[in-house]
Amino acid sequence: MELAGKRLSEGVAKLVVWLGGQQAYRVVAEVLERVGEIHVSASSVWREVQVYGERMGQAEKAAADALVVERGRGERMGCSADGGMIHIRGEGWKELKVGDIFEVERQESVDRKSQERVEIGHAVRDSYAAHLGGPEGFGEVWWREARRRGWEQVRDSVVVADGAVWIWNLAATHFYDSKQVVDWYHASEHLASVAQVLHGEGTEEARRWFEKWKTPLYQGRAEEIAQMLQAEARTHPSVAHTLQTEAGYFQTNHRRMRYMQMREDGWPIGSGMVESGCKQFKQRFAGPGMRWSRRGAENLLPIRTAVMSNRFDTLWRLARISPPI
Fold this sequence. Notes:
The chain has helices at 10-20, 25-36, 42-65, 135-148, 165-174, 184-199, 204-218, 222-235, 240-252, 259-264, 272-285, 294-308, 312-321; strands spanning 76-88, 92-110, 117-132, 156-161, 179-182. The chain is α/β, with parallel strands linked by helices. It has a domain at 186-256. A 5-stranded mixed beta sheet has the order 3-2-1-4-5, sandwiched between helices. The longest helix has 24 residues, at 42-65.
């Protein structure tokens, strides 16, 4: 089936755009030819993605402006955010900010230490928002996705993220009445770094120190850890600045580090869900040798987001009935 230079049927155009949200345009053309004997050039794939990516982005915003809400299944929701670098021609490496919106459900798991079966809060039914630009613009699309998912209708909610100040500033603006949790893994990493500063990288003393203080951290005693680090800074002048910086990190975030309580209450304490999502965005945008025009990247974003959020069919229908661009 030779389609180069011809207008694509709706079915083929939809397939082209869907694949374009997941693979490089050259790869899409090769897959279509090998699997379906559909001959579409890489430039035609690019053109369809540009047209429908822009339309899908407009359709998504129009639905949000009309307050079209997707009601969730539960009474708890959560969100998280992260960022990854992609290369924009003429600008260099720029951060692509990614937000995750999810429902929270208790699921039975096996506790690693006790080997007992316990119920732990998990993120389920994730959807995503992404923005190539500053925190303010990202905050708008992140909150727009949260509202679409029914954030304002749920009983309780949580923001889980690393210690980045820009994320917590956005949380204060858009998710101000939600619980806040610093990702357990990131907090543990900070503690492990302190152990290496005090006792040397890879040493047994560092391992023992880390294990000693990891339990108080999990118990929600971050203020105590901050005070301990301030005391250590006074007796270790050569690394005092590092210890004081880490003390500030734990002091600033201590209210977000009540890990045992949050876990017992059925909330997730890790942000692995958004980190996984961010990696999936980077897989499409930051592969070997990938360089983007800003408009080309921004037009692909709504497609990639729709594919990852299991909303491609819905946005495709809206894009098909939208006026030509």
